[in-house]
Amino acid sequence: MGAEMKRFLVTGSSRGLGLSIAALLAEYDYHVIMLARPSPHFDEAFQHLNNQFKHVSKLDCDLSDRIEISRVVKQIIDNNNRLDGIVFNAGIIHPISPMHETNDTQWEENIHVNLLSIQQMTKGLMPLLMSTERTRITTISSGAAIRPIHSWSAYCVAKAGLEMWTKCLAEEYQTHNISAISVAPGIVDTGMQEDIRNSNPNKFPSHAQFVDFFQTGALSSSDDVATKLMHLVTEHTMNQSGSRYDVRDL
Ligand SMILES: NC(=O)c1ccc[n+]([C@@H]2O[C@H](COP(=O)([O-])OP(=O)(O)OC[C@H]3O[C@@H](n4cnc5c(N)ncnc54)[C@H](OP(=O)(O)O)[C@@H]3O)[C@@H](O)[C@H]2O)c1
């Protein structure tokens, strides 16, 4: 591991878009810190990347758990002098249900994973982020941040909050060399789309439309999306900080 190697943390990198982003960053010679909940599929994804690139490390963390986040923040601070970037990609879609029928615990967990964990983690990691060198933060958002989707209330609220959180970070930390952008990735062929197709059609009016996206080949591959995102993730300028992008416009 070269001392000069730039370091990126990628959350939700056990599978889906996060894994594609982590793999591409490693290929571009960044040291990648992968983060997800402990699982055999995460172990396998990490082993695969680490065998190929060597400069990859792995953190097990459940982002719905404040204590776990504190533990992992300490671990990152203890093991790194700085971070050159973070991709806040981890996300969950559930609950998929009309607002009055949602399970309170699931609704709150959604906000915790998709939004609150990002604030907690960033605040904790500030000593590594504020520096004379640039730190680039990218949050993975969604079209659901800017338009309400029936039965996705928690997800829409979390992603809308995440986009404003990103703008606030950009606003407050420009003088500390931290920039932040959000990116909507389009409709990507990942586990999240499977979760959507596996949801109860009686509780989700657009169910058939999402099945149709899959059956007609309208989903993008996570590797293609990661390729399109990479320049923004690694090179976005301070002038771009605070902006929202949609992969379909790139
Ligand atoms: N797929 C789409 O069409 C689409 C569209 C718009 C936006 N997005 C956004 O793109 C991002 C990536 O989603 P994806 O489609 O790649 O979904 P995915 O395949 O379901 O992957 C989600 C990732 O988040 C991690 N994660 C979930 N809950 C977690 C928790 N409590 N703690 C730690 N990690 C957790 C998962 O890890 P483990 O489960 O292994 O812990 C996994 O690595 C999300 O922010 C999503 O909202 C996706």
Fold topology:
Blueprint: E1 7-11, H1 16-27, E2 31-36, H2 40-53, E3 56-60, H3 66-79, E4 85-88, H4 104-129, E5 135-140, H5 153-173, E6 178-184, H6 191-197, H7 207-215, H8 222-235, E7 244-246
Parallel strand pairs: 1-2, 1-4, 2-3, 4-5, 5-6, 6-7
Helix pairs in contact: 1-8, 3-4, 4-5
The chain binds NADP nicotinamide-adenine-dinucleotide phosphate (NAP).
NADP nicotinamide-adenine-dinucleotide phosphate (NAP) binds at residues 12-18, 36-37, 39, 42, 61-64, 89-92, 113, 140, 142, 185, 187-188, 190-193.
Can you offer a commentary on this structure?
This protein is an alpha/beta fold and 250 residues long. It has one domain: Rossmann fold (3-Layer(aba) Sandwich). The chain is 47% helix and 14% strand. The protein contains 8 helices and 7 strands, in the order E-H-E-H-E-H-E-H-E-H-E-H-H-H-E. Strands 3-2-1-4-5-6-7 form a 7-stranded parallel beta sheet, sandwiched between helices. Helix 1 links the parallel strand 1 and strand 2. Helix 4 runs parallel beside helix 5. The longest helix is centred in the middle third of the chain and has 26 residues. It is globular and about 55 Å long. It starts with 6 loop residues before the first strand and ends with a strand. The model has no long low-confidence stretch (mean pLDDT 96). Bound molecules: NADP nicotinamide-adenine-dinucleotide phosphate. NADP nicotinamide-adenine-dinucleotide phosphate (NAP) binds next to helix 1 and helix 6.
